[in-house]
Design brief:
Layout lengths: L4 E10 L6 E11 L4 E5 L6 H8 L7 E6 L8 H4 E4 L11 H5 L1 H5 L8 H10 L15 H13 L5 E5 L7 H18 L2 E5 L3 H7 L2 E5 L4 E8 L14 H13 L2 H9 L1
Parallel strand pairs: 2-9, 3-7, 3-8, 5-6, 6-7
Antiparallel strand pairs: 1-2, 1-4, 8-9
Helix pairs in contact: 8-9
Bound molecules: adenosine-5'-triphosphate and magnesium ion.
The site of magnesium ion has 4 residues, from helix 1.
Length: about 260
């Protein structure tokens, strides 16, 4: 069976008229079905670009990017759930009707998904907000609703672009636990971008580290901590060692040395 996601020598240049911007120089990795992969890298290195190529919003300039492939049942329309850096809710729709949007696109019956919409909202602490409009929710609450929207049609692949960046630290930790629970129950394949190193280690089977733009692979690190992960694990030496390795790879050591020189 082929890997669920196959990325080989992918390059992306944005055509801006003045020679273009090389966002991604060369990135290669495979992801197995059911794997939880997190991606870290400096701001502007090409992480969102990578995710947009995976969900088909933009095309690679060169290289191979295959999702599904032989041995996997995969329908791009049905089987991808995407969470963007901003919530992107439709402001004239209620929260529940925002959640039902993918269902409508897929031509499914809205009514049969209402119980799942309510259950998902409850899961993220938004019960009672079904009938509210986005402006009546805080930024963090809107982002939680947008995560529910990505899950409503039970996609096989969940693509998440810094989904918890706008949340306060406590809500963020709760969402990490909830996401792990959903993932362990439904075994989706998840690609999760974050700039938070602890979050990257806590959630991942494997962390992909990208270099500064134009992105290349700096490393891919298997995280061999037992599951389910608990928040208390963040204080263990094993967890700390993974985080230190990532900080080193991202060049924080040199920056700290330069700052204190
Ligand atoms: N539509 C576009 N047209 C031209 N250049 C773009 C476009 N989108 C992104 N870029 C450029 O590509 C590079 C990578 O952008 P991208 O959004 O993928 O970075 P990122 O790693 O997600 O950053 P951040 O961590 O800040 O979200 C940046 O230099 C950006 O300016
Ligand atoms: Mg981004």
């Amino acid at each position: 069976m082929q890997p669920f996601i196959h990325v080989r020598d992918v390059q992306k240049r944005y055509d801006t008229g003045d020679g273009g911007v090389l966002a991604i120089a060369k990135v290669s990795f495979d992801v197995a079905a059911g794997e939880f992969v997190t991606v870290v890298g400096p701001s502007g290195c090409g992480k969102s670009t990578l995710l947009k190529m995976m969900c088909g919003l933009i095309e690679p300039t060169s290289g191979e990017l295959v999702i599904g492939g032989a041995g996997h049942e995969f329908r791009p329309g049905h089987d991808i759930g995407m969470v963007f850096q901003q919530p992107l809710l439709l402001k004239w729709r209620t929260i529940e009707d925002n959640l039902l949007l993918p269902v409508e696109f897929l031509g499914e019956r809205r009514e049969s998904f209402r119980p799942r919409a309510r259950a998902l909202l409850k899961l993220v602490g938004l019960d009672g907000f079904e009938g509210k409009h986005p402006y009546e929710l805080s930024g963090g609450m809107q982002q939680r609703a947008s995560i529910c929207r990505a899950l409503i049609h039970s996609p096989k692949l969940l693509l998440m672009d810094e989904p918890f960046g706008a949340l306060d630290a406590l809500t963020r930790e709760r969402m990490n636990l909830e996401l792990q629970r959903v993932w362990m129950e439904e075994r989706k394949t998840v690609i999760f971008i974050t700039h938070d190193i602890q979050e990257a280690v806590f959630l991942a089977d494997r962390v992909i580290v990208l270099t500064a733009r134009p992105a290349e692979m700096a490393a891919a690190i298997d995280i061999e901590l037992p599951r389910p992960r608990r928040l208390a694990m963040k204080t263990t030496p094993e967890f700390g060692a993974y985080c230190r390795r990532l900080y080193d790879l991202l060049g924080f050591q040199e920056e700290e040395a330069a700052a204190s020189a």
